[in-house]
Amino acid sequence: MNKKAHGIMFHHFHDDNKHIVGQGSISADTLERLLDFYSIEHNLIGAKEFLDKLENNTLNDDDVCITFDDGLLCQYDIAFPVLQKRNLTAFWFVYTSPLDNVIEKIEIYRHFRFSCFTSIDSFYETFFNAVDKEYGINELLKDYDSDSFLKDFPFYTYNDKKFRYLRDVVLKEKKYYGIMDKMLEEYNYDIDKNSKLLWLSADNILDLYNNNHIIGLHSYSHPTAMVNKSDQEQAYEYEINKKELENIIKDKIISVSYPCNSYNSATLKFMNTNGIKIGFRANMADVNKECPNLELPREDHANILKAMEVQK
After folding, report:
1. Could you tell me which of 13, 141, 161, 251 has the fewest CB atoms within 10 Å of its CB?
2. What burial class does residue 19 get, using C-beta atoms within 10 Å of its C-beta: 0-12 exposed, 13-18 middle, 19+ buried?
3. Using one digit for the tens of pLDDT, what is the confidence trace for 31-67?
4. Rounded to an integer, what distance in angstroms lies between the CA atom of residue 93 and that of residue 72?
5. DSSP tag of 13
6. Angle 262-62-58 (CA atoms, 0-180°, nearest 5)?
7. Ordered alpha helix ranges (H), 70-136
8. CATH class for domain 6-102+208-310?
9. Angle of helix 105-115 relative to helix 172-186, nearest 10 degrees?
10. pTM for the predicted model, two decimal places
């Protein structure tokens, strides 16, 4: 596995109770086995130790921290107890619009995909048919190159990449939301009921902070393509995010991860001028780092699971 200081990136977890199985989700037991496996060749350390070593320029190539994106309740319910048992802390990157009772579509749509369809490919087939009916899918995909698109994320299937290309590059928010909202209606999906299962509360966030975890920025509304927004729009996303998290923990926010790995010079400028000390990308690819401390690599847990399978 990779030998350079980095984070492990986690998103979704499932159990036998309220958190459903979905593409990429893992159980508490799988998390335990993954951490045991990765600890064989890496030095798994707490979030504050990782930050201190970064600031003191003493990070070693085998130093690794744990990170969670999106501020999901399943992370708190399932992963947090595992970390407590191991006396480990993590970075928790939280987008905050759900704290204002804004039902963010990205997580609602994901829950819909896995609660209303027998498989992810069953959802994709229905979605692609809906796009074709509305816009003509062949015309939308005329410039699509599956080999080059998202090439740094090898765990994505052909349909995963096709879906993300349509969503982020071609349709973009307004048209994508329009198609998905029609599908929710057709399947009688209860948004209000299901939204209560999805996100951290302010009390959850404060509890994590009080247990020495580091709370970080992840934007206000989690745009899937932040780089498509103006400098002013980006600043708004992160200013509101920062203010709301600081109001909860009564401390300065000093860390960030970038939703969908989408960031640019304007994003980094905001972080530099607003006291952010550490930032994470969403892959392990080598980049010409404009701001090294704000562009640290992360290994997706899915890649680690694949390595575990190979070594069985």
Report:
1. 251
2. buried
3. 999 999 999 999 999 999 999 999 999 999 999 999 9
4. 10
5. B
6. 85
7. 73-74, 80-86, 105-115, 120-135
8. alpha beta
9. 40
10. 0.88
